[in-house]
From TrEMBL:
Molecular-function GO term, any one: RNA binding
Pathway: Carbohydrate metabolism; tricarboxylic acid cycle; isocitrate from oxaloacetate: step 2/2
Protein name: Aconitate hydratase
Source organism per UniProt: Microcella frigidaquae
Nucleotidyltransferase in keyword set: no
Record-level GO BP terms: propionate metabolic process, methylcitrate cycle; tricarboxylic acid cycle
Length: 894
């Protein structure tokens, strides 16, 4: 029972002979016209009301929510569960293991550090498409994955036994968000609390931005940083402001030739233009019931690309059908239906909820699209793709980049700018969607029948998000056709989507380097930021799975599908894309005939067990982890060193120097890259000094359990442009501890600053920290010695992660930037006003004084301005005062 029940909301729901305790939202005035997502939050508050953190006033405020008001009511959201992937999950478990020791050191019981909310981790981010285009590619890639990651996997197996309510889905099973919608999500959650069986909306937070994919099932959830996820696991609510909710009306239906991918690229484009950062988006209208669940999930998946916190669909018959198809029990389906109807969570097209803003898309107007070459919102109509490519090429290819002859495996060809070197069917965004996956399979069949082949310079990969995909390809008889075009399965995991595209053929890679060619990648992913996909590839395009295959056949982005043939058919006639594009009715018929519940039952019945490789990994035991001092994968991080039970006061910042001055749209991938580690970088040097061969470096993402690698990798993205240097790309800065302020690695400079006791500041432009939620972007920033980031605007998760790591996010005054104020980064920075936080007051602004230094141009005057403090909630202020969220949680546990 919740401790307080101000609205007398507790009731009993009986379904098929089982009684469930429920907290009825209809007891709160105003609930009727609340958007779906806010009703879910309303139930959450009713169930967790305790009179202190969750109060009657907050519940009342949510019921009478004013859609047009600027968000200012803080609420505490307690998610039902936490989902994780291995890149972010390993550091979470490392932190929990470290917290256990810290609790013991502070005199508490280490077993208190234990998930209170169930947590599930899917190992999907580590597999790399090293091998491709052969029948043994999958097997070999998994083998190499285990060789590289065995140590991390053993650690996770320890976590699985040491922590209650923490389960791991082993490698080679699927991709976290697809496994979530196909199996983990319950839609209506049940749990015994104090001997009473409760039913409540399934909600989650995930350590991955695309957690929102589950929104398509009517499950409210979104990506949070690893640090917030750890707190959620430990029973801390996620503090948030009641957001604005944008109503997005869907009408019409998708025309022939257009895919779900085209729809999401269109919606992304529309919502980016509208501006939905920090808001919920909710789909409504009669058109909703015509949207298949798989398309809802694909749309939900791209929520971070729109910039919204969540992108919700309501629950209806389509949801129930999907639950049945994917093998959820009849009892569960009945509970979902009864519970959703009782709580007004069932879709009723006749009720238009009150929304903050309204948008509308007639699906029949969507046209085939791609997006690129570096942002998902840069949509291009397919018919204009060639022209668009030609227009941007000059900014990627220097004049000297001319075609070059290459021979690979006995085959010779000429490689040129625009050539597609990677064509990847990848990413849960699309691999979860049978309509686009089967369209790809059917297109492959039609192409293979005509005798077409992928061009020899294209690395062709297929990485399904669950084994069900393989089953339905088999049943539909399409596996051979995909393989005939080179699309062999390379793994069940993220692969190219997260940058694990694996190396290009040596000869191709050196040819690209020799001529500085601007070659391209085409992937069915959701992100294409610079440097993310492959270090050799400058331009990345997002496209639907069938278009990925089409581009593999075309071999270049400099291609017009309308007027140019893909090749010559075996009959000697030219073959155009339109000749092999599968008919929508055939795609639907294939979906209907080749996917069944038995496939899901079969693939998910033993989902946590894993194969022989997983089961035979040695599993350490014990309440605390026995760290291996030699490990280069899993090390005990220093966050709690010297920590005391009492907090020390926060202080103003004096004499700080600028570590980096950055432009707009610096992503978390620029701040903490996930991909490959360069041998001559500080992280590469560290690994070599610890006896790791270059071929075994693995990726930054896989090394997030080792803070030594991660600090050195912070700001190490090869495409980072630090404006303290002229025209230099990569993780470099000027080291102002030296008289001549030479160019230096950012890590090396930070070591000198820390030795000299000089605090650091980052200056940045708009949308700082956009992209994937990545707690290492904040952890690394903090461990480099950065005390404040001053940006024009922040991405939501990264901003809160900075606070979670004790770094204060500050914003330039409205309309101002580092450049408009005249800052060039050579100044010495003082920030005063922070100390008001010690009095329990979060200042709205603090005073920043930038005084010219010996490194600044002579004769400059100091620059002063008031920076806006982006500590947005009282909870965040508590975290900041404690030096970070983990310290806060730890102190409250002891
Ligand atoms: Fe994230 Fe892509 Fe992996 Fe999906 S496939 S979890 S979007 S990296």
């Amino acid at each position: 029972m919740s401790a307080v029940n101000s609205f007398q909301s507790i009731d009993t729901l009986s379904v098929a002979g089982t009684d469930y305790q429920v907290f009825r939202v209809d007891r709160v005035p105003g609930y009727e016209t609340l958007p779906f997502s806010l009703k879910v939050l309303l139930e959450n508050l009713l169930r967790t009301e305790d009179g202190a953190n969750v109060t009657e006033a907050q519940i009342r405020a949510l019921g009478s929510w004013d859609p047009s008001a600027e968000p200012d009511t803080e609420i505490q959201f307690t998610p039902a569960r936490v989902v994780m992937q291995d890149f972010t999950g390993v550091p979470c478990i490392v932190d929990l293991a470290t917290m256990r020791e810290a609790v013991a050191e502070l005199g508490g019981d280490p077993n208190k550090v234990n998930p209170l909310a169930p947590a599930e981790l899917v190992i999907d981010h580590s597999v790399i498409a090293d091998l491709f285009g052969t029948a043994d590619a999958l097997e070999r890639n998994v083998e190499i994955e285990y060789e590289r990651n065995g140590e991390r996997y053993q650690f996770l197996r320890w976590g699985q036994t040491a922590f209650d309510d923490f389960k791991v889905v082993p490698p080679g099973t699927g991709i976290v968000h697809q496994v979530n919608i196909e199996h983990l999500a319950k839609v209506t959650y049940t749990r015994e609390v104090g001997g009473v069986l409760r039913a409540y909306p399934d909600t989650c937070v995930g350590t991955d931005s695309h957690t929102t994919m589950v929104n398509g099932l009517g499950v409210l959830g979104w990506g949070v940083g690893g640090i917030e996820a750890e707190a959620a696991m430990l029973g801390q609510p996620v503090s948030m402001l009641i957001p604005k909710v944008v109503g997005f009306k869907l009408t019409g239906s998708i025309p022939t030739g257009v895919t779900a991918t085209d729809v999401v690229l269109t919606i992304t484009d529309m919502l980016r233009k509208h501006g939905v950062v920090g808001k919920f988006v909710e789909f409504y209208g009669a058109g909703v019931s015509a949207v298949p669940l798989a398309n809802r999930a694909t749309i939900g998946n791209m929520s971070p690309e729109f910039g919204s916190t969540a992108a919700m669909f309501p629950i209806d018959d389509v949801t129930l059908d999907y639950l049945r198809l994917t093998g959820r029990s009849e009892e569960q389906v009945a509970l979902v239906e009864a519970y959703s109807k009782l709580q007004s969570l069932w879709h009723d097209p006749s009720v238009v909820p009150r929304f903050s803003e309204y948008l509308e898309l007639d699906l029949s107007t969507v046209v085939p699209s791609i997006a690129g070459p570096k942002r998902p919102q840069d949509r291009i109509e397919l018919s204009a793709a060639k022209k668009a490519f030609e227009e941007v090429l000059p900014s990627y290819a220097p004049e000297a980049s001319t075609p070059i002859d290459v021979t690979v495996g006995g085959e010779s060809f000429t490689l040129d700018n625009g050539h597609v070197t990677i064509a990847a069917i990848t990413s849960c965004t699309n691999t979860s969607n049978p309509s686009v996956m089967l369209a790809a399979g059917l297109l492959a069949r039609n192409a293979a029948q005509k005798g077409l082949k992928a061009k020899p310079w294209v690395k062709t990969t297929l990485a399904p998000g669950s084994k069900v995909v393989t089953d339905y390809y088999e049943k539909a008889g399409l596996t051979d056709d995909l393989e005939a075009l080179g699309f062999y399965t390379v793994g069940y995991g993220c692969t190219t989507c997260i940058g694990n595209s694996g190396p290009l053929a040596e000869e191709i890679s050196s040819a690209i380097a020799e001529k500085d060619l601007a070659v391209t990648a085409v992937l069915s992913g959701n992100r294409n930021f610079e440097g993310r996909i492959n270090p050799d590839v400058k331009m990345n395009y997002l496209a639907s799975p069938p278009l990925v295959i089409a581009y593999a056949l075309a071999g270049t982005m400099d291609f017009d599908f309308e007027s140019e043939p893909l090749g010559t058919g075996s009959d000697g006639a030219p073959v155009y894309l339109r000749d092999i594009w599968p008919d929508a009715a055939e795609v639907q018929a294939t979906i209907d005939s080749s996917i069944d519940t038995a496939m899901f039952d079969h693939q998910y019945s033993s989902v946590f067990e894993g194969d022989e490789r997983w089961r035979s990994l040695p599993t350490p035991d014990g309440a605390t982890f026995d760290w291996d001092a030699e490990s280069t994968y899993v090390r005990k991080p220093p966050y709690f060193e010297g920590m005391t039970l009492e907090t020390s006061p926060v202080s103003d910042i004096h004499g700080a120097r600028v570590l980096a001055k950055l432009g707009d749209s610096v992503t978390t991938d620029h701040i903490s890259p996930a991909g490959s580690i360069k041998a001559d970088s500080p992280a590469g040097q560290y690994l070599m000094a610890h006896g790791v061969d270059r071929k075994d470096f693995n990726s930054y993402g896989s090394r997030r359990g080792n803070h030594e690698v991660m600090i050195r990798g912070t700001f190490a993205n090869i495409r980072l442009k630090n404006q303290l240097l002229d025209g230099v790309e990569g993780g470099f800065t000027r080291d102002f501890t030296q008289a001549d302020a030479p160019q230096s690695f950012i890590y090396d400079a930070s070591v000198n600053y820390q030795a000299a006791g000089v605090p650091l500041v980052i200056l940045a432009g708009k949308e700082y920290g956009s992209g994937s939620s990545r707690d290492w972007a904040a952890k690394g920033t903090s461990l480099l010695g950065v005390k404040a980031v001053i940006a024009e605007s922040f991405e939501r998760i990264h901003r809160s992660n900075l606070i979670g790591m004790g770094v204060i996010p500050l914003q330039f005054p409205a309309g101002e930037s580092a450049d408009s104020l005249g800052l060039d980064g050579t100044e010495s920075i003082a920030i005063s006003g922070i100390e008001q936080l010690n009095e329990g007051v979060t200042p709205k602004t603090v005073r920043v004084v930038a005084t010219p230094s010996a490194h600044s141009a002579p004769g400059r005057a100091p620059i002063e301005f008031d920076a806006v403090v982006r500590i947005d909630t009282p909870g965040e202020a508590d975290y900041y005062r404690n030096g970070g969220i983990l310290q806060y949680v730890l102190r409250s546990l002891v």
